[in-house]
Write a structure and sequence with these properties.
Two copies of one chain form a homodimer.
Chain A lengths: L4 H8 L3 H8 L7 H14 L5 H8 L3 E8 L4 H20 L1 E8 L4 H13 L4 E4 L5 H12 L4 E4 L10 E3 L3 H15 L5 E7 L5 H17 L3 E3 L3 E2 L4 H14 L3 E6 L4 H13 L5 E5 L3 H8 L5 E4 L2 H17 L5 H4 L4 E3 L6
Parallel strand pairs in A: 1-2, 1-3, 3-4, 4-5, 6-7, 6-8, 6-9, 9-10, 10-11
Antiparallel strand pairs in A: 11-12
The structure holds a DNA duplex (30 and 30 nucleotides).
Amino acid sequence: MRPTVHDIAAEAGVSLATVDRVMNARPGVREKTKVKVEQAIEKLGYVRDVAAANLAKGRTYPFTFILPCNENAFMGELRDAVLQANERGRIERTQITIVDVPAFDAEALAEALIAAGEDNPAGIAVVAIQADPVREAVRKLTERGIPVVTLVSDLEDSTRDHYAGVDNPAAGRTAATLLGRFLSRQEGTVGVLAGSLSVRDHQNRFSGFSEIMAAHFPKLSILPPMEGRDDSALARKLVAEAIDAHPDMIGLYSLGAGNRGLIAALEEARTKGRELVTIAHELSAHSREALETGLFDVVLNQDAGHEVRSAIRVLKAKADGLEVIAAQERIRIDIFIKDNLP
Amino acid sequence: MRPTVHDIAAEAGVSLATVDRVMNARPGVREKTKVKVEQAIEKLGYVRDVAAANLAKGRTYPFTFILPCNENAFMGELRDAVLQANERGRIERTQITIVDVPAFDAEALAEALIAAGEDNPAGIAVVAIQADPVREAVRKLTERGIPVVTLVSDLEDSTRDHYAGVDNPAAGRTAATLLGRFLSRQEGTVGVLAGSLSVRDHQNRFSGFSEIMAAHFPKLSILPPMEGRDDSALARKLVAEAIDAHPDMIGLYSLGAGNRGLIAALEEARTKGRELVTIAHELSAHSREALETGLFDVVLNQDAGHEVRSAIRVLKAKADGLEVIAAQERIRIDIFIKDNLP
DNA sequence: TGATTTTTGATTTACGTACATCATTCTTCG
DNA sequence: CGAAGAATGATGTACGTAAATCAAAAATCA
């Protein structure tokens, strides 16, 4: 049987109350006694029964999720995933508050982080923007013992506890290899459509993509990246212009959002007899259809539901001071082609 | 606040004891009263606090995992994953017994299932073999209310509660598309190496592969599949012979185990100036190295750890009569190329 | 109607932990 | 040495559910 606090008390030769004081870091225990108790815990391999503890505490985990109020499909999914997780929260004892911030606005994000900290949540998840004020806000939070997890987009060189998102450089490299091999032996240029290269995940995808392109596919050269600000209309315009301007463009990597505009541009090009091998990100109703009709060749996807659930699991573990299973929390890049759509 | 049994009792105008009788299906409650209680539960949206219930019951979940004692890397990983899950079991209240059965032996498997049922476990996970005695054994178990989950290889047309494994036809289709596009415009034959076409997952991969090959890549024709029985030495021999016998063989899909032998054969071929575009299954130290040296072009992988954890989550949910989050339990096919290795 | 059976209520204990209170013992220092 | 203060023990309650017991009420049958 699993040892309980009673066993620890007996083993250490102290009372239950003292064990409790040690375990919950309450004052009034001599160092010597504390060590005795800790040794007993070690010896018996005691692990606190989190379920019982939470029951006793009547504990709930108030979490705050800070999301950009961006109108693209992926962010919508992410939001839905959070809401859905909150539904289940009644069972899991979690309660999630969503805070909206303007997209691509570092100052607003930093402020939102500080504000979120005021409520003393059990943890905060945030879609990060790479900027010093944000880093500073995160530092303040973690210093106060509030676990912070970055979601989808990481915050490098910060004190955040965990990143729940995909390996974006690897995503870019993958896109490059697939594009390169699908275009094997052909010569030409490839376009790149990003949302904004000031967002870390887009940056990272682009650099992974460029790296492999340069190293392994010398016959293909990359055009200067377009920035569509994850906006459909703008994306459409940029891509259409690029296709017209570069008759030798035979491939396209869209590493951000705004798929609807991109698809429209590709459809238009198709009517003019131009077909590009295209790789895009995020599986949605639109991108799925584009895969099926052959406008897209590959869609790289991150599963919003997984990311949210992983973030919650990690926040909960951090709040309880438990270990996380690293392998379980690795968010994988799904590679979808027409034939393995779920 | 979440309603408790007390609230239900008050709402239904009955005593706590009666609510308990209804909730735990104990005898001695009139139909009329039972309905009253159920309506109260419905009205207040009561959800039993599983943590508190388990605490009260002192419940543990004894699960049985039936695994083939196959000596390939993937089965080893699967076994490790189970052992590791069992380690964590002290916290999760699960206790897993592993039962070994000879590989590819349906009779032995059916017997093992029946035997496992004798101990009245809270659930059984099994790497299935497609055969009637196995189906029959599973039927008996589920009839007795023991949840059964198939792991890695499914058992079609059976009463199993869930399948924790990848979509194998989709894996085969994916392999076909990638192989076909990597070989774009080239003409020739492609080989297929299976473990045994009597195992459902291999069957399914092969049929998915054939389907897409026939439909989209008419310039490539599939050679009759080789059966390597997931045995390295045999695989090596078969592949080496095939490469020699078919000078026009330019691609290879290995959909089973035995990667070591396959790699050896490919290395040998390389020294003779033959390079095949190769797609294999399961990421291991060997296949990873083969990816890095270019002997393999793609490795399709199922994550053993995920499969095991998913199986446990589902078994637990079934044992508690809870819903499972379908999206969370979908086991995905990882597509690895040199550039996105974790 | 009275006896019998079924249904229901009231109450208690337990699970493992958290947390509070009050009493007691041990230290330490003047 | 005695008192103040710190450390520890003893004990009880709570969390939400399970499970058992025994008494009381209601329904059923003869």
